[in-house]
User: Fold this.
Amino acid sequence: MFNDPAEPEQAELSEPTNNEAYEVDSAIKKAMGLNFLAALVIPRVMEFMFPPMFVYFWQQCQVHLAKERGFSKLALGIPRGHAKTTFLKLLIVFIILFTKRKFIMVLCATEDLAQKVVADVVSMLDSTNIRKMFGAWDTNIERGRTTEKIFTFRGRKIILVGIGQGGSVRGIQSDMARPDVMIFDDSQTKDCAMSATQATQYASWFRGDAMKAKSPKACFFLYVGNIYPKLEIKAADSETPAIYGCMLKNLKQSTEWESIIVGAILEDGTALWEDLQSIEQLLLEYKEDKFAGQEATFLAEVMNDDEAIDTNIFDETKVPDYPFMLDEVPQGKALIIDPSLGKKKSDNQMVGEMHAINGQAILRRLKVYQMSAPKLVEAVLDWCIHEGICAIVVENYGYQETLKQWFDYYLEQLGIESIQVLLVNKGRTAKVTHIRSMLKEVMGGRLWIHPEAKAPLYAEVRVWDPMKTDNADGGLDVASYCNDVLLNFPQEILTPLTMLLSVDSGSRELYDPGMGMG
Assistant:
């Protein structure tokens, strides 16, 4: 693992003798390799050898850096927690020691991060091994600012500059030179990638300010980062591909950029870097993230795969803001029941409260009840009485019809005539199709989810698999009926509630809806 301190400890390179395996000339040649160079400059930090994939990244960078003309563009997708920045610092040292490039510009998310990169590169050049093999880099130093170093070394004047995202790079030049290497090191934050406004501003700075500051003769552009959860800013059309909030995703589909993007778990089921993050550790992290409802984050940022979850089914970022006051009085109400919750335990019941406001359907709240049918009926009727709800909606499939009989029995016993029990069904539409249509309604502003109901509903969406038949989708099932109820029973849900109890008020204790869990 790379701890990457600001001042890495040094390991002395002994004076070469005839009996040594590597003399200085041989060591210099081998220092062109990633692992050998890392062992030279950060020997105490380098606990593990870089894996083969990183060696391949290194070799590809060498190919581009060897070109004397042209504007090579390489995008590397490296998972979070896999030493991206350490890799880049070593690459900058390589550029200074072994290439003809003169002006290296490092662009990070903030100026402080860029300053740390410059400081750590200088610390590597200061290592005893590098000084013995290549000489002192700072013998002829012209400028030594924290974010800018200008010095003559290895037969040429070298400029190393660090800049934060959004920093001024327009017209940047030093000693009549412009950058011939631009390294974007995690220069886009997650917040930026998940905001259409910030992502658009970043794209303008990235392509307009930063990339346009290149040397007119040649420049190697290297973008290193990871994928963020998908945010589509512009849909694809016949002439142009889609545009996303995540810049790395845009570069991945660009014909002008070469891209190499890998996940922490490879296709053969092994870890990208077993010594650093083992497969057991990664699978445990995935399990924990999925349980916490953060599967999309793991798949995007650790696996670099934002397509693993089908956001075409539902994209939370496309849901418009809730348009009503949180406590706005509705013109109609109904309770919708999914008795089985889609699980084998028939005691689990999902109940949703649907509101109608200005002709639009709202899923107001969701509750889970773990109780038998008679107790559920009592709890739901008490809910209706306390909230002024005059319609109860159940599906007329199998057990649901039996549940209606329970309601009819209790309503008759209680002498309540102003609560109606209504039946609905999906007709010939498959349940999966019904739920998919509902999710499109939510994204399109044709069905509204009250903030109180959002968390339990979205939790179901994140783990819902349309290919499975045993999903825990009670909330989704309830939500999928909201517009059906509004369309089919407009008068029934608008009827004012009048509770006429024929039993003595002390003869029956109805269940408090607060007994529901959810």
